Amino acid sequence: MDEFNLHMTGDIHAITAANNLLAAAIDTRIFHESSQYIDPESITWRRVMDVNDRFLRKISIGEGPDEKGMVRETGFDISVASEIMAVLALTTSLSDMRERLGKMVVGNSRAGEPVTADDLGVGGALTVLMKDAINPTLMQTLEGTPVLVHAGPFANIAHGNSSVVADKIALKLVGPGGFVVTEAGFGADIGTEKFMNIKCRYSGLTPQCAIIVATIRALKMHGGGPDVVAGKPLDRAYTTENVALVEAGCINLARHVANTKAYGVNVVVAVNMFSTDTEAELNAVRDAALAAGAFDAVVCTHHAHGGKGAVDLGLAVQRACENVNQPLKFLYPLDIGIKDKIEAIAKSYGASGVEYSELAEKQIEMYTKQGFSGLPICMAKTQYSFSHNAASKGAPSGFMLPIRDVRASIGAGFIYPLVGTMSTMPGLPTRPCFYEIDLDTATGKVIGLS
């Protein structure tokens, strides 16, 4: 567990080094130019680190006495929010990765033209830093099932899916009659939507079934249950029977099912059972899922019983995969405008419209002028609600979705609007996990990562 959660094969370290090499190349180019080619005000590339540090969200650089007074404001993102992580997850080969890394846009020239990593002469060096990271890591479950672990694009900011390379290797290994389960990160609003409209477009792969995971406790929260705060004991409402609260929360599940079915795949709902869940509550979720159009809904106990607790789920997924009779449907075509795509996605959230800030309007106009309007959209949004407001539970509708900024990951291949107050650098809570982590110096084992 310590290897899995800490350094693994060093993929995130490679991404951090490559990202920050590109940042250094940008500032070096500006520093050494007699007449500046890059417009410093247009630079969108930020440095990254793999630590939640809110105080690096906005910084100034070039403050040293030898930097010729070339001070500018910038900031840090979390490493998994780097475009290079998204490139790693969407690439199909070393040559494709080299091309994508070179195409990454870091800002504009003073003439308004996009400046890429290859324009700065650094695309090859980035590929060298990333050459080993393209290889997935083979691990196994506690019961010996092979697992390919690869890539971790920030699901709020990037597309949040495991890598195309890992999926293709897995499909090759299982053969025509085998099954590959791949993660789509968060719910139907930002997990499934990005999986279908971005990953499936670039990989050419089509899923036969989508599994939506639900719990009684989460549905109670969406039904109007008390606030859940990390580190604090759960309210009794979540550990005692309340069928009405569960039924009220199933409106959230129903929208996830409907949104996912719209892509033409069968939906199986996996209800992860807790020891405090009652039969009446579980039946309420199953009934609601089937009424919403799910192919099946199965109660699972694999957390308690391992693989045997998910046998029924596996059989349901097998049946769902064997009963697909329609092609994959995308939410929007690529040949419409950036705003039209954003609004199609917003409508699937339940929004009645979209509000664009002055900055967002300016960015959309610029990216359209530069020829990037044909890219898919990757919404940067909270995972806690269909809306931009994390506190808005259930299935909100009729709200205006605010877009405060629009950025581009041209190498990865998408435009990403920032919805509401979504941050690209998380902060630590009052009591961070590091309080619990230590090293047993006698055995060399890490403790506190449970």
Explain this structure to me?
The chain has 450 residues and is of the alpha/beta class. 35% of the residues lie in helices and 16% in strands. It contains 14 helices and 16 strands. It has helices at residues 2-5, 11-32, 83-90, 94-103, 123-130, 164-174, 188-203, 216-222, 243-261, 279-291, 302-305, 311-322, 338-349, 358-369, and strands at 47-49, 59-61, 72-74, 76-78, 105-108, 114-116, 137-140, 146-149, 209-214, 266-272, 296-300, 353-356, 400-409, 414-419, 438-440, 445-447. The strands form seven sheets. Strands 9-10-11 form a three-stranded parallel β-sheet, with helices on both faces. A three-stranded mixed β-sheet has the order 12-13-14. Strand 7 (137-140) and strand 8 (146-149) form a beta hairpin. Helix 7 (188-203) runs parallel beside helix 9, helix 8 crosses helix 9 (243-261) and helix 9 (243-261) packs parallel to helix 10. The protein is globular, with a radius of gyration of 23 Å. The termini are close together.
